[in-house]
Here is the input.
Amino acid sequence: MFIDRAEIFVRGGKGGNGCVSFRREKYIPKGGPDGGDGGHGGHVYIVADPTITTLLDFTGRHHWTAQNGQAGMGKNRSGKSGADRVVRVPPGTLIYDRDSGRLLKDLDQPEMRVLIARGGRGGKGNQNFATARYQAPRFAFPGGEPDERWLRLELKLIADVGLVGLPNAGKSTLLSRVSRARPKIADYPFTTIEPQLGIVELSNYRRFVMADIPGLIEGAHEGVGLGDDFLRHIERTRVIVHLVDVHPIVEHPTPVEAYHVIRNELQKYSQDLARKPELIVANKIDLADNLSAVQELQDALGRDVIAISGVTGAGIEQLGDALWRMIQEIRQTEQASKSIVPHDDPFEAVAAAPTIRRGDVSSDDPDRERGEDEDDGCSGDDPCGPAERFEGGARWAGQEDDPDSEEGKP
Here is the structure.
């Protein structure tokens, strides 16, 4: 079953309480406080796992919590920190805050990792508060409260090529011909009711991912047929393959009419999607002895059309090579746009760089322990990104402006 939407509740682990304890041993009448600190609560991470293709795991499980930290103990023993909770989702998942509707993170790359809910800090034991004048503190700090929030997960498939067309245009047949995917194929409309992915392998170790979505009909943006909701799964594609049946059955739209129906639905759904590079493919040429129908379509649209047959395999190799060239050109353009441009304004360069505060647990090193004097600075309303927490006002060592502070005095 293909599930592309889910709502989950995430909560970090609660920090363990500090301990109030005093050393009690024979011949040591006043041993002093020895209450240990509580352990830190575990964090909740969301990871893009390439082995997962759907949000099905979240249909029966909605609450994901990390382990609580253990309380401190006597003899200066600290409590054990709670284990982290790792939530695995398919690449292409968008994470929204359910209440505010704000996009928190787009996991558009495999193995991307985001800290979505921080655990509470462990409370301090009474041994931390002993001074020369107050040698027997009888109090300790409780463990900190964790972050918690409701999330809305939406999946947008990641593919290089997306297939669009009317029902029974031959999209599933083409996908099964060029890849090892085995979508359902039948002689009635709306055979495909959920998106399908296939890996197209060409010669010289070339490969790309192709996505097939349910067919569109006129009025799909208003909910006619299966609607246009599945179009979001090809919003990330680099190229759109517009498949046209050049030999439709009676009472079905002509090839030119079918092309304009789909183009109209794409434009009404998203202008960005409609502007993506498009390759027009005329399918089912095996139903006629000549290519006159293909020539008529090409003359009417004024654009090049590739003729194929998903059944016999005619023109499939030409189609694969054409798609590969288009994908490579787009990839080169994307790489050029991501190249680093020198900043003339030094303040702009600093603003563009990510800012990490003390207490931030790196997503690349989740096992790094937090220091005793580090400050998380992450509230429940904060998306827990290091750059976004900077505005809260980080206080670094040496930045104190308290007139009574001894910092920096001779």
Notes: The helical segments are 171-178, 255-269, 271-274, 292-301, 316-337, 346-352. Residues 341-410 have pLDDT under 50 and may be disordered. The domain at 1-155 is CATH 2.70.210.12 (Spo0b-associated Gtp-binding Protein; Chain: A,).
